[in-house]
Amino acid sequence: MCWTLPNTLLGLLSGLIGLAFGARMRWHRCELAVVVRCWPWGAGGALTLGNVILHTGERLDIACHTYAHRAGRGIELPVSLADHERAHVYQYMLLGPLFLPLYLLSGGVSVRNPFERAADRYAQSGHGWWPWSRHATLSQEDR
């Protein structure tokens, strides 16, 4: 968690500003993150910054569509937003301050981004949160 502290501090600062506008903050052990609910800015959904998850909704454990589903790349069952964001927390914990630059260089918020595809894969199966893991390279026939 120390490795991603710069990102976490950015998330905590954002969360604290949100408190003045009605957001609520609480530690979630399962996500290894402070979850800021009812965060007043954004188009909906969640944003992870280190060990902080900023969420515009009331509850983090809700169903959401995968990036591939939203992009029309196939029909996929909804996944847990909490699981998807937990994968990003793991990614941050491994990459620390390198996460944001790598994430942005990998395509930002889009289906092309391997970090987002890995987070969706983790939310679907409970494994494969690392973008370049064995699970990311196996085809459906090989699994």
Structure description:
- The protein is an alpha+beta fold and 143 residues long.
- The protein contains 6 helices and 6 strands; from the N terminus they run αβββββαβαααα.
- The strands form 2 sheets. A 4-stranded mixed beta sheet has the order 1-2-4-3, sandwiched between helices. A two-stranded antiparallel ribbon has the order 5-6.
- The radius of gyration is 15 Å and the shape is globular.
- Mean pLDDT is 92; it is low at 139-143.
What keywords describe this structure?
single chain, four-stranded mixed β-sheet, two-stranded antiparallel sheet, about 40% helix, about 15% strand
Strand order of the largest sheet: 1-2-4-3
Distance between the termini: 32 Å
Q: From the alpha carbons, calculate the radius of gyration and give it in angstroms.
A: 15 Å
Uncertain segments: 139-143
Q: Largest beta sheet, briefly?
A: 4 strands, mixed
